[in-house]
Amino acid sequence: MESIEYDVYLSYRAQSGTDLARLMAAGLTRRGFRVYAADEAAGAASPDEAWRAIIEDTPDFVLLLTPQCLDRCGDEHDRMRLEIAHALTSGRNVVAVTAPGFVRPEDNALPPDIASFDSRHSVAYVPRSSDESIAAVTHRLSSDATVDERDMLRQAKWIGSGVGLVLLALIAVAIASLVPKLFGPRLDLRPLPPLALYWSGFGQRLDAGRWVEFPVQNEGRVTGGDRIQMVFSASADGFAYVLGRTVAGEVEVLFPSTSRAAADSHVRAGHVYQAPADGSWFSLDGQRGIEALYIVVSYDPIDNLEALVEERDAESTAQAGRALLETTIDGLLDGRHASTGARVRTRRGRPIVESNIEVPPARLTASTTLAGGARVTHALIEQPGLLSAMSEIHVRYEPVAR
To answer: pTM to 2 decimals?
Structure first.
C-alpha cells in the first residue's frame, strides 16, 4: 500500500479539541496543505506506532492548545505528550494554536521531555475570525501550500522506480534525470540569508506658520494636522507593505498603492521606497489620527496583506480589517517567533539560513522635502528578520483642541 505524504501533523486533545481540529484541518486543506489529524483518542500506541513515522516525515507539527489539554501530560504514556516530545526531538516546525479558555502552565510545570515547548508565541484562534486565524497559522508553516511541483516530483520518482525494475540501472538513471524536465521546472533550493528591513520615518508639522520636521519613532507624539512619510528598503527582492492603524480602528494602506494592482507590492533589493507610494504625505486629520504604523517586507507575498490592499470599504468592516492585520502581524516569521533552526523555507522551498551574505540598500540614508521647501535627510534603521522583517511603530496621537 502506497504511503501518503503530509505537510501538517495536527495534534489535539479529543475531549476539548475535536471540533477545532476539524475546522483547522478543513481550513488548511482548502489552502492546499495535506493534513494528518492525529486520533488522540486511539491511545498512545497503535500496533506499529505509525504516527511516529508520520511525524518524522511531516515538516510541520500543529498543536491545538484547548482548555485542560496539557493536564494529562504528566503521564509518561500520554499520547499528546509523546507526540509533542517526538516532534521536538525530530526537529519538526512546531506551531502552537491557543483556543479560548486555554491557560498556559506555570514555568517548569511541564515534563522534561516537552519542557522546551513554549506556548507564549502561539497563534491565537479567534472563533469570530476563523479564516483569519487559520491564515495566520499558514504563515508559521515551513511547508508550501502550492503542492503542484511536489506532486510532479513524486510522479517522477514513481515513474523512475517502475522503469528501474525492467531496464538497466544506467538507463533508469538517465530517464530519472529527464523526468523532472518533462513534468515541471527544476526547483531552486539554494539557501537564502535572513531578510532585513531598513527604514525611517519623516514627520512635519506647522509651528508658528512654518513647517518643521520631527522624527517618526516608537512611542513618539503626533498631533492632528501633522504629516507623515515613511521610507524603507529590503536586503533582497521580495514584497513590501506599509499600513497604518487609525484611532478609529481602520486600516490605511500606504504601500503599495491601492489604485494599482497588488503586484505592485513587489520590491527590489537595495531600492529605497516611499510610503505613501506616490511620494505624497499622509495627513493626520479627523478620523485619520494614527495609533500604529507597520512596515513589512517578505520573501513571499503575504496573502492577508494582499487582501487588505485589494479590498474596498464595501467588502469589509473596519473591525474585520483590523483583526486580519493583527493576526497576520502576530504570525509573521520575522525572527521574533522562530529561529533559523526551525527549518523556515520560502514558498518555493528555499531554506533561510544564517549567513554573512547581506545586500545593503543602495544608500544608507533617505531624503525628503518639507512643505516649506527644506530638504531633510535620515539614516535608515536596520531591522533584522527571517522569512520576513517588520518594524512596528506605536505613536501617541493627540487631536487638536477645538
So the answer is: 0.59
